[in-house]
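Reminder to self: tokens first, then the designed residues, so the page reads top to bottom the way the pipeline ran.
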């Protein structure tokens, strides 16, 4: 009995010791993700480092500047150990099972020279980019030579072409896709016989606006002396199960640093996320590790999931097949689990293996619960298992309620199940207007069928009321009042503005009231416009004063600038008349706001042209009325009116510039005065 008690007491201790035997490191950095707005939001860490593989623990000896990594379907890890001129093969437990540093070529022994790329075909054959020897070597799994593919021969290659293969992949038909050092024409293709067949996927040449300007104005001789503009070269490749080639570049400020190329070389990668798959959206422009992400490698997972490696900050970004960001992890640093010079990544089941050239090691990452549920949710959603997907997404939201992709995933599942209203709510939380529009279209159809009688009755009553109102207005014989004058002006602008100026029928209080109404309507528009046409606004955060000042300030800036300009150009309009004419011209814009708000809540994205048409009519009507108003108030010709309106906009810009300059100088003067005051008080205190 005593012996049994001792064993029971020792059992928990044994479990603890077993757990300690496998090193699992705490996250050496904080997790984050990007919101729809492009702002970094705190998030749980999706992957944690669990093992470092390298150094003397390898029976083959430590790595030396390894450049490439490839993991086979049966979980064998191949490393291009560049500095040691060899290929190292490890099993799933990271034990060395084979080292290939030489092979028989003809009747003599041959070796590698700085191999930078490794690919293993499904038939077990190894393809090594033997960079230093400027060739591709194909070996059997046992290390026996199959063939050597030398430099390509083609008329399309220039005389200065240098063949230095650095990365490569192959497809099921035996074709090879090779990235060459300094090759800007795209990815080299070799057929199954090893013959060069051309380039694919060439990157576009990017020019700045200044470059384009100088190219236009320079002579042919001057252009010949300019620095050549060449496409950015690819730096890594991978291939998926469908034969599509994923290629990466480290081009700065590019929205397409990773591409999915079809056999014709066309990029077919989906980019329907909040931001394109390009790594960090926000980054420092100075200090430590500044600049955009430099994409170094791409690793393919199941069901279209892929990850890209950023060598600038050592981060790994994982996306689904539609290009939506799932999670981010990794960092450059000195702590355990961070990197020095990461060069390649690949998936080992659900684990991520990172090759660190600077530390000469492999780092194995395992998913946390957070990372695991997101990955499983994406996979379940992709294969159509909605219930499992929703369950995983809800768990992910419990771990991180800022995860907008989770709302989107739940919305997709509900849309497939016909729960259109619930799907709309989740798509709105997930900030996705396309899917929201699709769900709304289905919901609207169901609502129309269910309430058709009520909708028809309301429509008939509305038409009757409009007809009755029109008849009553026509029967009126009295002179139009203040409101009627505004209505008359927008349909008879020449007579209306003439009466406004010369018969004094315009009222300044009504003009200011129109300005106030327009300001309030814009506040309502910001808050109540449908999500499809107003996704960027959070109604809870709308600042009423900001919305009003963006209407009122430009209005009076126009009036002041126009009065200043026309005073010098013999204009007859008084400031009061300019204010009234501008405000009366705004009536169509005022009238359009309520219909626009209502329309935005009942139409889909595909029907958005009606919304934009109505909005355009309002603004074009306004500009037409403003032109007639300025022409009539100042008694100008058509040509002079056009010139003064253009000059008015120029004066508005000058006023804004002078205002900003004044406030900047005033701020500096106040700062100087405060400094002098503090210094004087300090001196007096010392005295």
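Designed residues (687 positions):
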């Amino acid at each position: 009995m005593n012996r049994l008690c001792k064993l029971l007491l020792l059992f928990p201790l044994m479990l603890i010791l077993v757990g300690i035997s496998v090193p699992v490191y705490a996250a050496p950095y904080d997790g984050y993700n990007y919101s729809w707005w492009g702002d970094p939001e705190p998030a749980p860490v999706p992957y944690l480092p669990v093992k470092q593989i390298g150094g003397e623990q390898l029976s083959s000896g430590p790595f030396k500047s390894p450049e490439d990594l490839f993991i086979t379907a049966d979980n064998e890890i191949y490393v291009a150990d560049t500095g040691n001129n060899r290929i190292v093969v490890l099993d799933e437990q990271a034990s060395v099972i084979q080292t290939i540093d030489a092979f028989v070529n003809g009747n003599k022994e041959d070796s590698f020279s700085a191999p930078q790329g490794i690919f293993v075909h499904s038939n077990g054959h190894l393809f090594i980019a033997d960079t230093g020897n400027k060739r591709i070597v194909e070996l059997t799994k046992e290390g026996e030579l199959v063939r050597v593919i030398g430099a390509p021969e083609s008329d399309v290659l220039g005389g200065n072409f240098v063949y230095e293969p650095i990365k490569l992949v192959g497809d099921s038909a035996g074709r090879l896709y090779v990235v060459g050092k300094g090759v800007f024409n795209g990815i080299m293709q070799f057929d199954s016989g090893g013959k060069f067949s051309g380039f694919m996927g060439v990157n576009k040449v990017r020019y700045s606006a200044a470059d384009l300007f100088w190219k236009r104005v320079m002579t042919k001789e001057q252009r010949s002396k300019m620095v050549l503009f060449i496409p950015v070269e690819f730096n890594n490749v991978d291939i998926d199960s469908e034969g599509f080639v994923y290629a990466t570049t480290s081009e700065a400020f590019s929205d397409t640093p990773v591409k999915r190329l079809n056999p014709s070389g066309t990029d077919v990668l989906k980019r329907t996320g909040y931001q394109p798959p390009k790594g960090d959206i926000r980054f420092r422009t100075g200090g430590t590790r500044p600049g955009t992400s430099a994409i170094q490698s791409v690793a393919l997972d199941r069901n279209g999931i892929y990850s890209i490696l950023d060598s600038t900050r050592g981060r790994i970004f994982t996306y689904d097949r539609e290009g939506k960001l799932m999670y981010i992890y990794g960092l450059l640093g000195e702590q355990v689990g961070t990197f020095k010079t990461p060069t390649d990544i690949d998936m080992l089941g659900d684990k991520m293996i990172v090759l660190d050239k600077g530390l000469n090691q492999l780092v194995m990452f395992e998913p946390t619960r957070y990372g695991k549920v997101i990955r499983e949710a994406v996979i379940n959603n992709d294969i159509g298992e909605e219930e499992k997907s929703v369950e995983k997404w809800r768990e992910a939201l419990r771990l991180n309620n800022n995860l907008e992709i989770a709302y989107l995933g739940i919305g997709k599942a509900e849309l497939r199940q016909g729960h259109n209203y619930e799907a709309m709510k989740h798509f709105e939380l997930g900030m996705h207007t396309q899917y929201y529009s699709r769900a709304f279209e289905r919901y609207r159809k169901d609502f129309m069928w269910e309430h058709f009688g009520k909708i028809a009755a309301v429509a008939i009553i509305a038409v009757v009321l409009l007809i009755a109102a029109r008849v009553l207005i026509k029967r009126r014989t009295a002179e139009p009042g203040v409101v009627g004058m505004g209505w008359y002006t927008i349909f008879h602008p020449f007579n209306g503005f003439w009466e406004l100026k010369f018969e004094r029928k315009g009222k300044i209080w009504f003009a200011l009231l129109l300005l106030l109404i327009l300001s309030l309507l814009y506040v309502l528009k910001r808050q109540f416009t449908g999500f499809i046409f107003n996704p960027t606004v959070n109604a809870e955060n709308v600042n009423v004063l900001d919305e009003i000042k963006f209407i009122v300030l430009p209005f009076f800036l126009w009036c002041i600038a126009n009065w200043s300009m026309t005073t010098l150009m013999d204009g007859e309009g008084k400031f009061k008349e300019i204010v009234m004419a501008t405000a009366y011209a705004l009536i169509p814009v005022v009238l359009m706001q309520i219909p626009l708000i209502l329309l935005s809540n009942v139409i889909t994205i595909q029907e958005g042209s009606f919304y934009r048409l109505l909005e355009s009519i309002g603004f074009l009507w306004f500009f037409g009325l403003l032109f007639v108003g300025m022409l009539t108030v100042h008694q100008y010709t058509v040509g002079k009116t056009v010139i003064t309106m253009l000059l008015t906009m120029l004066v508005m810009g000058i006023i804004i510039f002078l205002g900003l300059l004044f406030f900047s100088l005033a701020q500096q003067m106040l700062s100087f005065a405060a400094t002098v005051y503090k210094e004087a008080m300090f001196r007096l205190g010392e005295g």
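The first strand starts at residue 32 and ends at 34.
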